[in-house]
Design goal:
binds zinc ion, six-stranded mixed β-sheet
């Protein structure tokens, strides 16, 4: 199912954890609305680079989210967040370009050696953060020390 000009639902719902558990990572109707909005926002991210975006993690439905130990109100569990790489860009350079743009978002996190995380929860705080130590490690303000 196509969500926007360049993004398909499957890009946001493929989950190795879900596959290994044998559960379908199917969005609830409410989360489906959020995922359509997320895809439109990711079109704006894509337009900043005019390069393909590789989504590495998007939606986690309640079952999958619990299995990965995610907090229930995680933006990924609501369909508001995507982890990604931009074709041809180092993650930090991609995060810098988003930071320096006019793009509205809730959180931008440079997850070192992992991905760029962006969320579009309607709070839209435009928080800019980095997580240099890997999953579960402390999160700091700003992209650079
Ligand atoms: Zn993320």
């Amino acid at each position: 199912m196509q969500l926007s000009a360049h993004f398909f639902l499957a890009e946001f719902t493929i989950s190795s954890k879900a596959l290994s558990m044998g559960v379908e990572n199917t969005p609830t109707p409410e989360h489906m609305v959020n995922l359509r909005s997320l895809a439109e926002q990711m079109e704006l991210v894509r337009a900043l680079f005019d390069r393909p975006i590789e989504i590495t993690s998007g939606y986690r439905n309640p079952v999958v989210n619990a299995a990965v130990g995610g907090v229930p109100n995680s933006d990924h569990a609501l369909g508001h967040a995507a982890d990604f790489h931009v074709d041809g860009f180092h993650d930090l350079d991609a995060a810098r370009r988003i930071r320096d743009s006019e793009l509205k978002f809730d959180q931008l996190i440079y997850e070192k050696n992992r991905c760029v995380h962006v969320s579009f929860h309607p709070r839209m705080r435009r928080q800019i953060l980095r997580q240099p130590g890997g999953p579960g490690s402390p999160i700091h303000t700003g992209l650079e020390p």
